[in-house]
Amino acid sequence: MKSELKAAVQARGLHLMDIHGIGPAGAARIIQARTLCTSPVHRTDRRVPRGWPGHVDRRAERGVGAAGRLGLRAHSHRVDRPFQARAAGRLMGRAAGDETKVAEMTDTTRRRFLQYGMAAGAALAVPAAAGHSSAAALIGGPLKKFREPLPVPGKGIVVASPSGTNRYSFTLHEISRKLHPDLPPTPIWAYDDGSGLAGQAGSFGMVIAGQSGTPIDASYTSHLPETYPDWIPVDTRLTPRGNEVRTMAHLHGGFVAADSDGNPAVTPDGFGHGQTQHVHYTNALPEMPASLRWFHDHGFGTTRLDVFAGLAGGYLLHDVHDTGTEPNPIGVPGGAYDIPLVIQDRQFRRDGKFLYPVSDIPGVVWIGEYFGDHMLVNGKVWPFLDVEPRMYRFRILNGCNARIMSLHFGGLPMWQIGAEGGLFDRPVRLRRLVLASAERADVLVDFRGLDGRTLYLRNSTPAAPVSTPAPPLPEVMQIRVGTHVTKPGPKSVPPSLPGRRAQLHHPVRTRYITLNEIAAQTAKWTLNLSGLDFEGRPVTETPKAGTVEDWVYINMTPDTHPMHVHLVTFQVVGRTPFNVSAYQAKYGGPNGVPGGIDPTPFVTGPMEPPTPDERGFKDTAKANPGYFLTIRAKFDLPAGVQAPQTYVHHCHIVEHEDNDMMRPFTVTP
Fold first, then answer.
1. How many domains does the chain have?
2. pTM of the model
């Protein structure tokens, strides 16, 4: 069988790198296929999802990992549509304390955060498409891991300086940084706070530090090129203005008015060279409590490319309980022992530039998912982190375009204390943390008793029912535990926290939204929500301001999709298995199954409750194949903002988002 598979793989122009067993006793076999020159064809370890023909229920073997069938997913493109039709019909109309004390609060927050970074510097001992080869070819082999220290805020990550009272002024321009000692400098698109970014060490290098309850005004002025350079391959069928660079910053997790949201339902053309985007971030309570959010580009049809190029930054809020200092009222690590970990995967070209492959189908550019072969943390390739033998707090963000990760410290327990919507009401003990694109987790890890040990943060293929075509990329970063403690810190995990458990009641309506994938692996490949493209009218989701609704995401595809809803954080109610093929057979059409159709008659088992790490409020949740995901949200608007207001919801695999797995929704009066 191995020889037959090898012949089949090589017939596709691929190279069989490995066949190996995974899970206890090697119960599942997978094929790791990679292109000879990082071709856009990626290996897929497909499971047959529950409810699909040929599915075998392996819930008793949950620890096995990526059991499934062999598939080779050719990244492809959707059907061409006239540019005028793409641009037309989607423009929606925009909706229309004590200053000194507030200024002191914001400045104090930033200075305190800078001090943490400087302290961390001391405490942490900070001293392919055809024709392109991977960075490994640069030195005749893979890049050596764990050569450089992890950048931290104030020491490799710039803590943004305000340009006025609670105001930040950013320019977007290209810089270059060495992301590994054996790589040439890599061009990066960056948010510059006016400092010149001399303090940015890697490709992820900016964080805004603010205070919950204190609003911030920001501006983003593009000094980027007028058109995309050759290392960023644009599919002009997906963009409003061809090859023009049109950016738009979005505060992910922001409770803001629609015209400050940075979404293409309001501003489809984005902002070009020399233009400025102005936004107002409310930081309102209780919707924006202390937590790690992030801001990133949301250009229409180019989100995947602009984030890949570097347009992303952290947005960290503190409050009177979660102060970020140590000691603090909630009894968790702070200061130099409170560290963000932003994880991204990238490919490189020989000249050090990031590599974004294109489809091997003639005339097609867009690819179905982007997966890197190098792991970056805080913008450095496979860094190391020196820690003391004491407790640490890690704020983890999956910043990958498409990769879903199952993270672990080699069996060392983690205590999750929060997620996208802020702190939980109590900690949750975990040994693995499964994060899809844009999901965040706030965790405590105790290194006491591990003096002198070398540990690793690792990634593995998530267990079913999560399904991802990502090839393995197991090592994330190295942890070097020292023998000396500068400051002992907390001795135990707090039994309770001043956060919230997600518990909403009395939904006034349930909406059914299907996730469809059309003509996969062909030149007409596209994805959609409810059988509609982004411009499809009317807007089908129209919750009334102040009401609670259940939204049911019905996954008709073989992949897990991280679904993100702008404006709100939500409760994960649960996931229900159903018969996908029967539902498809009864209601499917040329664009998939339309929305609005209750899948309850097709269920094959009881609703499965949220996973322990979904205890709190979230803004992104995994819709797994063979299941429908139910979320519950209250559609409030910020004070002084009047309905109607239009936002978007979408899959946060950004390749999917750019190829129409995104729809507008309008909060109505």
1. 2
2. 0.84
